[in-house]
């Protein structure tokens, strides 16, 4: 598991767990009673439910998917809490019924620190869409 010693470490830790399709590592990024809202508005509470939500799709349609995360900002709420926003580009392959494509989402996460380790308390994922048509929109990615 990737230990998170500062809030922005969540980007790499989440991306690494997702890209290795290691749902136990993904679950370990969250507090035991954390909440998760996926990009379709499905709400779950608790690490077990978060893993249960992700394990089947990583065994099937997201089995060849990857994430690429990019920090937007970190907003401290004191010494032991922070809100973080980051872009996440999901790229799926041939395992997805719609075939290879990319989806951009904006993630908002609340992290808290306990015993010098940060974990996710709540995470919400929103798909970028055209409000007039509902079609997915890809944002312009910054060049390195």
Automatic annotation (TrEMBL):
Signal peptide bounds: none
Gene3D superfamilies: 3.10.450.50
Superkingdom of the organism of origin: Bacteria
Bilayer-crossing regions: none
InterPro entries: DUF4440, NTF2-like_dom_sf, Steroid_delta5-4_isomerase
Domain DUF4440, first and last residues per copy: 10-120
NCBIfam families xref list: SgcJ/EcaC family oxidoreductase
Name recorded for this polypeptide: DUF4440 domain-containing protein
